[in-house]
From TrEMBL:
Species in which this protein is naturally found: Nocardia tengchongensis
InterPro entries xref list: Split_barrel_FMN-bd
Taxonomic placement: Bacteria, Bacillati, Actinomycetota, Actinomycetes, Mycobacteriales
Protein name per Swiss-Prot or TrEMBL: Pyridoxamine 5'-phosphate oxidase family protein
Length: 134
């Protein structure tokens, strides 16, 4: 996915956020780590994934990036995608994103004007060569 294909509205949302949680799946279930992904060329780059994350990605490349709201009644950004190890770094190719408000349970049942859903790329299948252990 080239940068022009990445929705400018979503790029603006990402630019305003910093700390994300990367969720990968291991043999024992979900593994969550705090990260500072950088959006470049329509993909998220993570410079220093840990060894457990690398093992998980090598076996199961589907991941989720989650940016929590910056305010109690703000919006959460959730991006699903597929990850590939590139040397000692991790690259996440986003496929779907949801920008959704957080609030009281009664407010969660209706969509606010700022909530968005994005389909970013067709399903992406990684080959064994795409996932290399660092």
């Amino acid at each position: 996915m080239s940068e022009p294909d990445f929705p400018p509205e979503l790029a603006d949302i990402v630019a305003g956020l910093e700390l994300a949680f990367l969720v990968s799946i291991g043999d024992l279930g979900p593994h969550t780590t705090p990260q500072h992904p950088v959006l470049r060329d329509g993909r998220f780059h993570i410079a220093t994934p840990g060894p457990a994350t690398c093992r998980n990605i090598a076996a199961r490349p589907a991941v989720t990036l989650l940016w929590p709201p910056t305010q109690p009644d703000g919006h959460v950004l959730i991006i699903d995608g597929h990850a590939a190890l590139r040397g000692n770094a991790l690259e996440v190719i986003p496929t779907h994103a949801v920008f959704h408000h957080v609030g009281a349970p009664e407010a969660m049942t209706r969509r606010c004007a700022d909530c968005r859903r994005f389909t970013l790329a067709p399903p992406y299948v990684l080959t064994g060569a795409d996932n290399q252990n660092p």
